[in-house]
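> run fold Flagellin
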Amino acid sequence: MRINHNIAALNTYRQLNSASGAQSKSMEKLSSGLRINRAGDDAAGLAISEKMRGQIRGLDQASKNSQDAISMIQTAEGALNETHSILQRMRELATQSSNDTNTTEDRSNIQDEINQLGEEIQRIGEQTEFNTKKLLNGDMGAGQAVATHKISNTMHADNVTATTLNSHKDANGNNLGIANGDKITATWSINGTQHTAEFDVTDITSDTIDNIFAAITAEGSATAAFDGTTGNQMEITAAGPGTAGQINGFTIEVKSAAGVRKEAASNALSNFSTETAAKDVRADGSADFQIGSNQGQTLNLSFEDMRADTLGVRNLQVSTKSQAGTAISVLDEAIQKVSKERSKLGANQNRLEHTINNLNTSSENLTAAESRIRDVDMAKEMMEQTKNSILSQTAQAMLAQANQQPQGVLQLLR
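> ok
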């Protein structure tokens, strides 16, 4: 028997500390509801669960982003719905104006309403916004308009009856008098900016009207195609971005080598009939919606310019039967463009609704996986806590017994 070291008491004390420590951890887990409260509880599990937490929060935010995107789309679509209604009314008025039962005064009244409706479409396009971001004026992202065909003027050269310059005659058969050394200058305006192209007549027997429009093309702001024969037409289209506005004020002037204006030639070459057509505009302006938890998981959506200028319905003329007929065609194309834009927005809204459902499902399943790693099983942990509590109480009782054992040595000393 030894009294300096009570091995039984030391062993019981160690077991008591172990049970007490386990009981404390069980109480911590039960009170927090977490199986992992610190890295030491499960180092690998902590790393995995933190990665999952990042994904879960990203998925939840992506779902909110998608809902915000739907709100933005609904704002734009609501504005286009009103634009549609206005265009339908404008078409109705144009159809009314094309009827010859109307007097000049009647058509003037119709024109007044057409003008106001066009201005309202322009205002809707310029002022529709979501969270201070303009939606329908082409400014979403790096918006830039490009005219692709027949921006505004289709010109019928009914007063030009030949292709070579020396044989040009006016409608009455009079020679235009174009000679070597004359200078032909074409001027026109795009978006209010004046453009000029010059062409020197060097050989009247070989130079053609095409050379004039080759000079226009070389000027860089427009392209033209025209063969100079009666009944054919010249179409002017923009050659680059930023020319979505109307081309107008097109004139051709012929001057002699001395700088004197040749009235007959200038008037004949500039006497065009014009037809305003709706513009084809491509909008590079777009919005990227973050619809996933990782980089690159985005949805790109462009909002095209839906202003009256771009649709070609601003300052639309219905004062004559011919103008009203042209206006109907322009409005039909504008209605088609708005319909196409609304259809695109609606399709993307439906897609985003499915995206939200998928994101919510992914978040739910990933949360369940993270919960299995991070959260404590309350029933199981209660079992552990109860076991450790009993072991702790037992160890305390046994420690008291172990401390009594060395007292047996006193019996040997009596």
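Residues 141-163, 220-232, 238-245, 278-284 have pLDDT under 50 and may be disordered.
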